[in-house]
TrEMBL record:
This is MYND-type domain-containing protein. InterPro entries: Znf_MYND. PROSITE patterns: ZF_MYND_1 (PS01360), ZF_MYND_2 (PS50865). Residues 249-285 form the MYND-type domain. Keywords: Metal-binding, Zinc, Zinc-finger. It comes from the Eukaryota. SUPFAM superfamilies: HIT/MYND zinc finger-like. It comes from Mycena metata. GO terms for molecular function: zinc ion binding.
Length: 446
């Protein structure tokens, strides 16, 4: 098991940011990392009942229906595709983190690189960091496919650390360096942290192969482990919501039993965590004292409205796995409330008023004869773990419409072009939010 701090760092690279002082035991954090990597492989969507025998699946042969492996090993969501397109049109650099700064993003670049090596032939591969502190010897034995979009790279691998090269790895490397077989070693640079993620995937996946499956391997690979790799991409909305869930103390995640007596907005499990949080909470606490909060009720963006299905394309929708089609199917069913990933801790939301001037989806999400009538507003957080619509009933009394009108007035008066604004919010129930009307956060870049 990796050190606790390293597991938290790897989870963060996948977009799973737990409370800084979480009291989750090491074993639970380790399980959460494995679950996150399973979600990133979309195993539940593409894999059969596990374990499985790859021999029953067709070989991946590039043809009219199959892409190159370098292409097929890539996964991205709508949000990423939109960011890349917007940056290209503006002549800007890639919006993604620089290479070797985010272990998970590095892994997502390494898998297509392995696919690229396979496109040239089943060549031996060595992944190692620049300081050669850690390395993985690997060879792809064959490539099968779950479907035309999802290749299965059957691999043998062995991991070594600096100054401790195993006899098996030494013999394996020597066989390619000295044989003149025409299969030169392909070297891929991978940070130690990235290798930890790749090894976790390989070690978990090797248990998912049927014991009856025994592909042919080279004599020097007898000590290597057998496993498989499939495409990896960003976590979907449901996985993100579950893995980021914090329904308790804002510091450790334990059940919250008290709240800050000054602002009443942040909750803690005990006085120890509250004292620990005071330095970072103090600036916000002063601003929230005496703040005015407005309760508001919402509906899911995918619920049936006025005889139509409002299909909201989420930034988390995966382009390669028909997420948008699946969302359309789900839109036909009554859904429960979105999961509460924030607990009772305040978080920032973006509020966008129905308007034809809006660049985003707020003016198209629901059918409306008058685009600028402000009859609905869209509210969502940065990760879209909550992504909801608030409606103003056309025949509502002034008293009934007061919550909606108060929030709309805030956006009209203090927002950008009177269309959108960032606000503090607190989840108060399954279908309710409290919006802070007089303490706005700094403008966000999302």
């Amino acid at each position: 098991m990796l050190p606790r701090e390293e597991i938290l760092g790897l989870l963060s690279s996948l977009g799973v940011d737990l409370p800084p002082k979480t009291k989750l035991p090491d074993v639970e954090l380790d399980k959460r990392l494995s679950k996150a990597l399973d979600g990133a492989q979309y195993l539940s969507r593409v894999a059969p009942t596990l374990p499985f025998d790859p021999a029953i699946y067709s070989s991946w042969i590039r043809g009219k229906s199959n892409k190159t492996l370098v292409e097929a090993m890539r996964r991205h969501n709508v949000g990423e595709a939109t960011m890349v397109d917007a940056n290209q049109r503006k002549g800007m650099d890639s919006p993604f983190p620089a290479l070797y700064s985010n272990a998970f993003m590095d892994l997502r670049e390494t898998l297509p690189a392995i696919g690229h090596a396979c496109d040239k032939g089943m060549v031996p591969i060595v992944l190692q960091d620049k300081g050669e502190m850690s390395g993985i010897c690997m060879r792809v034995l064959e490539v099968r496919k779950f479907d035309d979009q999802t290749p299965i790279l059957i691999v043998v691998f062995q991991h070594d650390v600096k100054d401790n090269l195993s006899p098996g790895s030494f013999a394996w490397i020597s066989s390619y360096v000295s044989s003149g077989s025409g299969s030169p070693l392909v070297t891929i640079t991978a940070t130690v942290q990235e290798q930890h993620l790749l090894l976790r995937i390989l070690n978990n996946n090797k248990k998912r192969l049927s014991s009856s499956y025994k592909p042919k391997r080279a004599p020097t690979e007898s000590s290597f482990s057998l496993s498989f790799l499939i495409p990896v991409g960003p976590l979907g909305a449901q996985d993100m919501a579950k893995l980021n869930a914090n329904n308790g103390c804002s510091i450790c995640g334990e059940p919250a039993k008290q709240k800050c007596s000054r602002c009443g907005a942040v909750r803690y499990c005990d006085a120890v965590c509250q004292k620990e949080d005071w330095k970072s909470h103090r600036p916000l606490c002063s601003g929230w004292q005496g703040a005015k909060w407005q309760g508001i009720t919402f509906i899911l963006a995918d619920l049936q409205v006025a005889g139509h299905y409002a299909l909201r394309i989420s930034r988390f929708d995966n382009v390669q796995h028909n997420d948008m089609g699946l969302r359309m199917e789900r839109a036909k069913d009554n859904q429960g409330p979105p999961e509460n990933t924030h607990g009772t801790t305040p978080f920032i939301v973006k509020i966008q008023v129905n308007s034809s001037q809006a660049l985003g989806p707020a003016h198209t999400i629901l059918p409306s004869n008058a685009r600028d009538d402000g009859s609905n507003i869209l509210i969502y957080d940065q990760r879209r773990t909550i992504d909801v619509i608030v409606l103003r009933a056309p025949e509502a009394s002034e008293e009934e419409a007061a919550p909606f009108d108060a929030v709309t007035a805030l956006v009209r008066e203090k927002g950008d072009r009177g269309i959108k604004a960032f606000c503090w919010a607190i989840r108060t129930g399954e279908w309710t939010l409290d919006i802070c009307l007089d303490r706005l956060p700094d403008w966000q870049k999302w």
